[in-house]
């Protein structure tokens, strides 16, 4: 029989601090409830925001019919296995990403507006100004309940200065999350740094000692193995399986990060350049992150796996993931598209170019689907971690050739703790603000706390029915 344990119990040792997934032992028996012991809430809701640049080929993204009987379009095909947890949203817009008198710069505005719903100040200097992003508002609501209020990650280097798009600062196109209207949250692109943040104990050991442990290829799990074994003895069969699966997931991700580092070190020793210079118009890379795989798909997958583990262990409940900076000109030779993404997005109606854009779009969805699949495989409470998530995937541009910011490609994934109408394609009135969706998501993650629901967010005009 399981022995009740505290929801905040952590496996801790020198250099390691691992929170646990949601366990049956964290719900006290009726006897302990009668004795006055605090009763934990149901599994928490997590919010995620995943952004891809340069819009999509909309004819291959948008279902032709509404409701639950829609045919899955080609680009969204990789998500078909979790169709019952999808809500495809059409008609939503970010009007504040339009020029509105500011001239060219649609890529920068798309990135800056996506989570803020505000008009970015046109400047390439230090006086940047956008708005507080929805992920940070959510973090203010629930961040005190987890080790980290929010997690900001990506795969391309960030920047806070320089002209990246027609007079707009690189800060707008290389950051998704904004802590204040003038301060973007720098994203982390090094998987090892994210891993250390989530599972390391910053209060224990010097940076040199932690680096020495890495070089010995010692697993962080080896440090807490004794505590983990002792814990297993107190748990029921189902909980032991959950803990074992969770720890194995942590070990697997750690091992992949170590292999990526070894490959990088080998490349440096051989005199190979670890990273090419950034294409013109993108923020200049300050060296490749030491533990990032050279392969883009593996980099995205590894970061997604870290998000899944962070959600499963309730290390954070809010995450933003900038898969590639807005305006990215990355090439995708591995899927037969050697041209730069941004360049080919200006397809001019050429069917061959449109086909290649659709191929890139589907590839991005395939990588996102790996995260969705992993969350769906994590049992939690009366469902899965995916059932207790609401993750928005999309872009701040509709068609890359038109640079439009209406009828954006957006799909909401997850059960939202049973509060979302999923398995549908919902078409809303053209021009409906994306900020209306954000208000509805904030209602859900803030449910049960003492803060009154927000009256507005960004350029919202009401709440979206989801």
Describe the fold and architecture.
The chain has helices spanning 30-34, 106-114, 134-142, 170-174, 191-199, 207-215, 220-232, 237-269, 296-312, 341-345, 351-376, 434-445, and strands at residues 10-13, 16-19, 46-51, 86-93, 151-154, 163-165, 168-169, 178-180, 183-184, 318-322, 331-332, 337-340, 379-380, 383-384, 389-394, 410-413, 424-433. By secondary structure, the protein is of the alpha/beta class. The chain folds into two domains: 1-40 and 202-285, no CATH class; 44-189 and 292-466, 3-Layer(aba) Sandwich (Alkaline Phosphatase, subunit A), CATH 3.40.720. The strands form six sheets. The chain has a seven-stranded mixed sheet, with helices on both faces. α7 packs antiparallel against α8 (237-269).
Question: What's the helix and strand layout?
Answer:
Blueprint: E1 10-13, E2 16-19, H1 30-34, E3 46-51, E4 86-93, H2 106-114, H3 134-142, E5 151-154, E6 163-165, E7 168-169, H4 170-174, E8 178-180, E9 183-184, H5 191-199, H6 207-215, H7 220-232, H8 237-269, H9 296-312, E10 318-322, E11 331-332, E12 337-340, H10 341-345, H11 351-376, E13 379-380, E14 383-384, E15 389-394, E16 410-413, E17 424-433, H12 434-445
Parallel strand pairs: 3-10, 3-15, 4-17, 5-10
Antiparallel strand pairs: 1-2, 4-16, 6-7, 8-9, 11-12, 13-14, 15-16
Give a nutshell description of this structure:
Helix content is 33%, strand content 15%.
Number of DSSP E strands = 17
**Count of spatially separate domains:** 2
List low-confidence stretches: 29-35, 274-289
Give the SSE order as H and E letters: EEHEEHHEEEHEEHHHHHEEEHHEEEEEH
The percent of residues in helical segments reads 25-40%
Spatial sequence of strands, sheet with the most strands: 5-10-3-15-16-4-17
Dominant shape: globular
Look up the CATH topology of the largest domain: Alkaline Phosphatase, subunit A
**Main β sheet profile:** 7 strands, mixed
How far is it from the N-terminal to the C-terminal residue, by CA? 40 Å
The CATH architecture classification of the largest domain is: 3-Layer(aba) Sandwich
- Structural class, by secondary structure, is alpha/beta
CATH class division of the largest domain: Alpha Beta
Mean pLDDT: 90
Helical segment count: 12
Strand content: 15-25%
């Amino acid at each position: 029989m399981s022995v009740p344990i505290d929801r905040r119990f952590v496996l801790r040792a020198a250099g390691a601090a691992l929170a646990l997934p949601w366990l049956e032992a964290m719900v006290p028996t009726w006897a302990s409830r009668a004795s006055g012991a605090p009763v934990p809430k149901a599994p928490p809701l997590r919010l995620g925001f995943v952004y891809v640049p340069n819009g999509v080929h909309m004819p291959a993204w948008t279902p032709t019919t509404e409701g639950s009987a829609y045919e899955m379009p080609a680009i969204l095909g990789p998500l078909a296995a979790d169709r019952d947890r999808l809500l495809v949203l059409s008609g939503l817009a970010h009007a504040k990403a339009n020029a509105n008198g500011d001239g060219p710069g649609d890529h920068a505005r798309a990135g800056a507006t996506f989570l803020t719903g505000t008009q970015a100040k046109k400047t390439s200097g230090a006086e940047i100004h956008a708005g507080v992003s929805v992920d940070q508002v959510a973090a203010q609501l629930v961040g005190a309940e987890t080790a980290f209020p929010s997690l900001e990650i990506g795969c391309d280097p960030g920047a806070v200065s320089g002209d990246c798009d027609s007079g707009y600062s690189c800060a707008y196109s290389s950051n998704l999350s904004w802590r204040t209207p003038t301060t973007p949250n720098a994203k982390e692109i090094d998987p090892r740094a994210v891993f250390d943040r989530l599972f390391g104990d910053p209060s224990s050991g010097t940076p040199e000692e932690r680096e020495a442990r890495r070089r010995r290829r010692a697993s962080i799990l080896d440090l807490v193995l004794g505590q983990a074994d002792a814990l297993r003895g107190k748990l029921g069969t189902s909980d032991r399986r959950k803990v074992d699966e969770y720890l194995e997931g942590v070990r697997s991700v750690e091992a992949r990060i170590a292999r990526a580092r070894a490959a990088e070190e080998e490349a440096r020793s051989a005199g190979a350049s670890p990273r090419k210079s950034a294409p013109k118009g993108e923020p200049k890379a300050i060296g490749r992150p030491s533990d990032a795989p050279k392969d883009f798909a593996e980099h995205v997958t590894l970061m997604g796996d870290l998000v899944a583990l962070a959600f499963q262990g309730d290390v954070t409940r809010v995450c933003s993931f900038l898969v590639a900076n807005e305006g990215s000109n990355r090439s995708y030779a591995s899927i037969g598209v050697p041209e730069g993404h941004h360049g080919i997005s200006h397809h001019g109606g050429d069917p061959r170019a449109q086909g290649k854009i659709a191929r890139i779009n589907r590839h991005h969805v395939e990588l996102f689907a790996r995260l969705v699949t992993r969350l769906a495989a994590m049992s939690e409470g009366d469902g899965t971690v995916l059932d207790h998530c609401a993750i928005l995937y999309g872009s701040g541009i509709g068609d890359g050739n038109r640079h439009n910011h209406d009828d954006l490609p957006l799909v909401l994934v997850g059960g939202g703790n049973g509060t979302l109408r999923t398995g549908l394609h919902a078409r809303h009135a053209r021009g409906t603000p994306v900020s209306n969706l954000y208000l509805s998501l904030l209602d859900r993650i803030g449910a049960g706390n003492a803060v009154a629901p927000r009256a507005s967010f960004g350029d919202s005009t009401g709440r979206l029915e989801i």
